Amino acid sequence: MTAPKKLFIKTYGCQMNVYDSERMAESLGGQGYVETQTAEEADMILLNTCHIREKAAEKVYSELGRLKALKTENPDLKIGVTGCVAQAEGEEIMRRQPAVDLVVGPQSYHRLPQMEARVRAGQTALDTDFPEEDKFETLKGRTKAARAPSAFLTVQEGCDKFCAFCVVPYTRGAEASRPVTRILDEARELVDRGVRELTLLGQNVNAYHGAGPDGAEHSLAQLIWALNDIDGLERIRFTTSHPNDMTDDLIEAHGSCDKLMPYLHLPVQSGSDHILKRMNRSHTAESYLRVIERIRAARPDILMSGDFIVGFPEETEEDFQATLDLIENVRYGYAYSFKYSTRPGTPAAERAQVDADVADARLQRIQALITRQQQEIQDTMVGRDLHVLVEKPGRNPGQMVGKSEYLHAVHIENSDAAVGDIVPVRITEAKRNSLAAIRRN
After folding, report:
1. CATH number belonging to domain 385-439
2. Is residue 240 reached through a cis peptide bond, with omega within 30 degrees of 0 on the bond before it?
3. Residues 6+ apart with CB under 8 A from 142
4. d(CA 153, CA 162)
5. Would the CA dihedral through 192, 193, 198, 200 be positive or negative?
6. How many CB atoms within 10 Å of residue 107?
7. Cβ neighbours, 10 Å, residue 434
8. Which of 77, 85, 67 has its CA nearest to residue 12?
9. Which residue among 36, 49, 242, 414 is buried most deeply as judged by most CB within 10 Å?
10. Is 5 helix (H, G, I), strand (E, B) or coil?
11. Which of 2, 67, 5, 61 is CA-nearest to residue 33?
């Protein structure tokens, strides 16, 4: 028998890239590849890239420079770049780094088997098109191996919002939603393989408008209710959302759908209306706060998460203080904050930039506030009875680790629970980034 070829995928960035990497591995499994955890023993290396963070492209080129040495040792090694940097850079990647054999954008992953055959025949392969065919239908999983109890499921891609700082509309394309039936089929397959919790993914997931079985467009709330009927699926989450697309039926679902977890990531980016307008966010701080009020009226215990950009072009100290005020008002259980960095081709890149030292100081201030809020909310969990989806053994004997309804990492001491169990616990301690618990009967 021919020995299987080995595939190494390094994934950068968001959860959607994690999902895409899994699909690419399954697709290339049909070409005789099995995954390996080390680049040194791989026959093919794929860098699944993200263009959101600062100097993303340069970091990819730096990694390619390191991988070039492996190709010197193994001339049969094939190297590919996928994801948003691949979409943005295209032919430039191959020009700057001739060791690269394959470049493919996020909308063309279903063509990987054909591209792999070309590079094995000694050619190079480039595809950064936005094809009309459904890549997800072609990228159906080829394996039936057991899965971890929690999984991602992409339901929507692309964005039509065109925020002034963001490259997503250019690298992922316009908003497109998968049909309900195909999502349900994939969800059932994942449940059959051991998944008990699904996180629905989309660059703008609550703008979901996929075709339902009756041909009419379904909202994200309707999709959630359809998933709610799948036996064996116990938990549903979704990310990332836009405040303008928190519809009435989606807010209502947070209050009435038992499987929809009490956690919501709802980025606002700034608390200043002036900066929000310059960001082209199409909402105000006040309208965002009103949405939060409505969500909490439907589900009072919901834990909120958010994103913030500090040092956006033209941000004044007054603008920054408005962001701090909004954070104090909302009280986030989690939040992610970043110092603005330019993205070539986006409107904000051409504007006057905030002094780097000023932006650094603001980032430290906002992170200190977020850290304090997060710890205060974790402290309120002590003594509460929660349910934890067990994901893996802990470091200590008898310890198991999983996630609560609120997405907190929980370490259960002296537990006989198995991976995939959902167990009742009582929280005994709030640590910096996790909770400790004992199992209840």
Report:
1. 2.40.50.140
2. yes
3. 26, 27, 29, 30
4. 24
5. negative
6. 22
7. 14
8. 85
9. 49
10. strand
11. 5
Q: Quick one: angle between helices 220-228 and 248-256, nearest 10?
A: 30
DSSP state of 355: P
CATH match for 135-140+148-377 among 2.60.20.10, 3.80.30.20, 3.40.50.300, 1.25.40.10: 3.80.30.20
Listed residue (83, 112, 65) closest to 18, CA to CA? 83
Distance between CA 7 and CA 25 in Å, rounded? 8
Q: How many CB atoms lie within 10 A of CB 242?
A: 21
Q: Would you say 140 and 185 are in contact if contact means Cβ atoms under 8 Å apart?
A: no
DSSP secondary structure, 141-164, as one string: --------SEEEEE-EE--S---T
Mean pLDDT by 10 residues, the chain (441 residues): 85 86 88 92 93 76 91 92 88 92 88 91 88 58 70 92 89 90 95 96 95 95 98 97 97 98 98 98 97 98 97 97 98 95 85 95 98 96 98 93 98 93 97 94 78
* CATH number 3.40.50.12160 given to 5-127: yes
Q: Please tell me the pTM assigned to this model.
A: 0.85
Collapse the DSSP code of 212 into the 3-class scheme (helix H, G, I; strand E, B; otherwise coil) and give the result.
Answer: coil
H helix or E strand, kind and range, residue 78: strand 78-83
Task: Output the six-digit token pair for 135.
Answer: 């890549």
Q: Which residue has the tokens 């986006």?
A: 346
b/e map of 196-230 (b: 16 or more CB within 10 Å)? bbbbbbbbbbbbbbbebeeeeebbbbbbbbbbeeb
Domain boundaries, given as residue ranges, for the chain = 5-127, 135-140+148-377, 385-439
User: Which tokens belong to 315?
Assistant: 């941000």
Among the listed residues 427, 428, 340, 419, the one whose alpha carbon sits nearest the alpha carbon of residue 387: 427
- Structural contact between residues 222 and 253, judged by C-beta atoms closer than 8 angstroms: no
Q: How far apart are CA 236 and CA 196, in angstroms?
A: 9
Strand, coil or helix: 413? strand
Tell me phi and psi for residue 48, to 5 degrees: -90, 105
* Per-residue model confidence (pLDDT) at position 208: 97
Contacts of 284 (CB under 8 A, 6+ apart): 273, 276
Question: Which amino acid makes up residue 392?
Answer: K
β strands within 334-408, DSSP E: 334-339, 385-393, 400-403
Q: Could you give the residue ranges of the DSSP H alpha helices within 107-202?
A: 112-120, 135-138, 168-171, 180-192
Contact (CB, 8 A) for 84 and 107: no
